[in-house]
Amino acid sequence: MTMSSATDSMTVLTGMYAAEAEYLAAGGPGKASFDLLAPFFAPDVELHQAAALPYGGTWRGHRGMEQFFLTMGGVWESFDMVEQEFLATGETAVVLTQVRARARATGRELGFPILQTITIKDGLIREVRPFYWDTQAIAEACAVPASTT
């Protein structure tokens, strides 16, 4: 672990989050090109989401990441990263994000933290593991309301 590898990891992370903001500003999933984000992810990247979430599972490769963003766009009407803190040591980074989101199905708004471990090697994000404080609250907020008939 060297200071330069931690600095390189921070450069990749800040670049990716800036590209994500540009991607969302350009219309996001289904409207903006994933090409804005692709340069930051390894071709075989893996994103591991908690199974209890409406977008749970493992998403692999650039195509998987693109599908993940499309799925997220279907679940959330808005998903704002209000505040972020970064810690990088070598190939491992930890990102704490405070989120404010509105579920598309219910209109409910939630505020919640996400802690992500991110593996960065050779200047590319190889693996992302988000940890949510309360997956049940998120799943409930995103659930399609039951029919009243």
UniProtKB/TrEMBL annotation:
Q: Where is the SnoaL-like domain?
A: 33-127
Q: Which Gene3D superfamilies match?
A: 3.10.450.50
Q: Identify one Pfam family in the record.
A: SnoaL_2
Q: Which branch of life, at top level?
A: Bacteria
The record lists the organism as Streptomyces spirodelae
Q: List the coiled-coil residues.
A: none
Q: Which InterPro entries match?
A: NTF2-like_dom_sf, SnoaL-like
- Higher taxonomy: Bacteria, Bacillati, Actinomycetota, Actinomycetes, Kitasatosporales
This chain's protein is named Nuclear transport factor 2 family protein
